[in-house]
Amino acid sequence: MSLRRKILLMSLLMLAALTGCAFAFVQTSKEAGGDTLGKGLTMLGAGLAIGLAGLGAGLGMGTASAAAMGALAERPELFGKTLVYIVFIEAIAIYALVVSFMIMMVK
Q1: CA 36 vs CA 47, 55, 63, 97: distances in Å
Q2: What distance in Å separates the CA atoms of residue 86 and residue 54, rounded to the nearest whole number?
Q3: Are 49 and 103 in contact, with CB atoms under 8 Å apart?
Q4: pLDDT digits 0-9 by tens, 30-82
C-alpha cells in the first residue's frame, strides 16, 4: 500500500471518528442540559492539535532522518546540520503539545 493511500485511509478513519464524537457530544449535551458540548469540542480540538501535528512530525521525521542518514554516510562532517533539521521537526510536535494545553485551559 502506497503512502498516499495510507494517508487517505487514515484521514477517512479520522473523519469517521470525528463524526462519531460530534454525535456523542451532542447527545451528552442534551442529556446533561449543560455546556458539555463546548467542553467536549474543546477537548476534541486539543486532541486534533496534537494528533495532526504528531502525524505530520512523524512523517517529516521519517523522511528527514532517512535523507540525513544518507548524507552522513557520504559526508560525516554534515552531522551538525542534519541534527538541526531533525530538532526543528521535533520542535513542531512540542509546539503542538503546548498549543493543546493552551486550548484545554480555555473555559
Answers
A1: 16, 28, 40, 23
A2: 14
A3: yes
A4: 555 666 667 777 787 788 888 888 888 888 888 888 889 999 999 999 998 88
**DSSP one-letter string for 32-66:** H-SSHHHHHHHHHHHHHHHHHHHHHHHHHHHHHHH
State the total domains in the chain: 1
CATH number at residue 55: 1.20.20.10
The grid cell for 102 is: 493552551
Domain that holds residue 66: 3-105
Q: Does residue 59 or residue 8 have the better pLDDT? A: 59
